[in-house]
Specification:
Blueprint (H helix, E strand, L loop, with lengths): L9 E5 L3 H7 L4 H21 L4 E5 L3 H6 L2 H20 L1 H5 L2 E6 L2 H4 L2 H13 L6 E6 L4 H18 L7 H6 L11 E4 L19 E4 L9 H12 L8
Parallel strand pairs: 1-2, 1-5, 2-4, 3-4, 5-6
Length: about 240
């Protein structure tokens, strides 16, 4: 591997295309989610190979849970329950000391068995830190910013000398302990962002859009995205 290349340390995924993949293969929508979840596990190996210390993955938005068919949502919740339980026991996760964090309103919106499974994965990996695997569930980026503003207002009411700057905003985010995103990858062939995903942390991120649907986005595609990033010049306004 060429040491002169600069690889990203934090990659965020918007894994779009599960439902369209299922439709293309004449399958039920939830089978697209199942295949997509299995695909992500493979890509984690690539991230570790390139020394990517933080991987953030948007698993569901608030709208996904509110607007999609009940049967599909129930399957998605069952999938979360099973996958997080599996992660809590995964030998590779423990061997590589991967810390699992979950952001969003999942504690307020998910049923108890799903919450318990997620909590097990968080608890089992809380002392790790070599790698960080971050999931965003029942998440809204605009809600995160709104909540940060509310938190700042509460602080200002009790501290008249409060300095409101970028450091304070950062302290009030769900993602306050995460570094800025270097590379954001969206699959599915629709080159846009959604609901302010990690709005603050992606302010200077490089964007990479793939035409492939998420279940078809393989290890080779991921490596191509990382190599593409490594060849870009990041000027940060200079």
């Amino acid at each position: 591997m060429n040491k002169k290349l600069s690889f990203p340390k934090h990659i965020a995924f918007i894994p779009d295309g599960n439902r369209r993949w299922a439709k293309k293969h004449k399958l039920k929508a939830w089978l697209g989610h199942k295949t997509g979840a299995e695909n992500f596990r493979k890509l984690l190996e690539v991230a570790m190979e390139f020394g990517v210390s933080h991987i953030s993955f948007w698993g569901s938005s608030q709208d996904n849970l509110a607007k999609r068919p009940k049967e599909e949502v129930e399957f998605l919740l069952d999938l979360f329950r099973d996958k997080f339980l599996s992660l809590s026991k995964d030998e590779k996760i423990h061997e590589k000391k991967v810390k699992i964090s979950v952001f969003g309103s999942w504690r307020e919106q998910f049923p108890l068995p799903v919450r318990e499974s997620i909590e097990k994965a968080i608890e089992a990996t809380k002392d790790y830190g070599d790698y960080h695997l971050n999931f965003f569930l029942a998440y809204s980026g605009t809600a995160e910013i709104s909540d940060a503003i509310k938190a700042i207002v509460r602080k200002a009411r009790t501290d008249g000398s409060l300095l409101i700057d970028k450091n304070l905003v950062k302290e009030c985010l769900y993602t306050k302990e995460l570094p800025s995103v270097d590379l954001m990858i969206r699959t599915g062939g629709e080159p846009h962002l959604s609901d302010g995903f990690m709005m603050w942390e992606t302010a200077n991120a490089q964007l990479y859009f793939s035409d492939k649907l998420w279940p078809d986005f393989n290890k080779s595609d991921f490596k191509d995205a990382i190599i593409d990033y490594s060849k870009r010049e990041r000027r940060f306004g200079k």
